[in-house]
Amino acid sequence: EELKKWGLLSVLRKLKHSPDQEVRILLLGLDNAGKTTLLKQLAAEDISHITPTQGFNIKSVQSQGFKLNVWDIGGQRKIRPYWRNYFENTDLLIYVIDSADRKRLEETGQELAELLEEEKLSMVPLLIFANKQDLMTAASASELAEGLSLHTIRDRIWQIQPCSAVSTEGVQVITDMPNHLVLFLNLFTFPSVLVV
């Protein structure tokens, strides 16, 4: 556990040496996992009218010297083959899971496993949001980690974070890091300039 945190710290330190660098974040997961809600919450936008993403959303946030480009790609089965068109130059992969949709856990696990096999995503740090923790039927993050065999991932830094995109609980991650070395996503919480 501690090793993973230090791994993320080292990734951030590298980026901090060149603060003008653009950080490309890929936001993936099955349809209805809560990707767009999460993205809108992080960008402090209204979440009352969200429809399924047919193509992709991109948000750019300028904050604390970083330009973060977040690509939110639709998760419907017919769109998933197009995910690979967006893999190039990804700095962080965020995978969102609907923790309450137990019927689709096998499907989401298969999609994640395929992503981790992709050559263009090799070594890319992985952050999994175990979303919808506010629902009674939600599987816990540790239950999901076990079910998805995350402990077998050896080729990258990874972390699973329980959260609720609706309430934003759990969206701030690794809060015990030093203030000047926050995880990419914490930068969204106080965006200085938002470009859509």
UniProtKB/TrEMBL annotation:
Cellular localization per UniProt: Cytoplasm, Cytoskeleton, Microtubule organizing center, Centrosome; Golgi apparatus membrane
Membrane topology: Peripheral membrane protein
UniProt-annotated binding residues for GTP: 29-36, 75, 131-134
Any GO molecular function: GTPase activity
Keyword set, alphabetical order: Golgi apparatus, GTP-binding, Lipoprotein, Magnesium, Metal-binding, Myristate, Nucleotide-binding, Protein transport, Transport
Gene3D superfamilies associated with the record: P-loop containing nucleotide triphosphate hydrolases
InterPro entries associated with the record: ARL2/3, P-loop_NTPase, Small_GTP-bd, Small_GTPase_ARF/SAR
Entry's Gene Ontology BP terms: protein transport
One GO term describing the cellular component: Golgi membrane
The keyword Protease is assigned to this record: no
CDD domains reported for this sequence: Arl3 (cd04155)
Binding site residues for Mg(2+): 36, 53
Keyword Metal-binding: yes
Domain of life: Eukaryota
Family stated for the protein in its record: Belongs to the small GTPase superfamily. Arf family.
UniProt protein name: ADP-ribosylation factor-like protein 3
Organism: Astyanax mexicanus
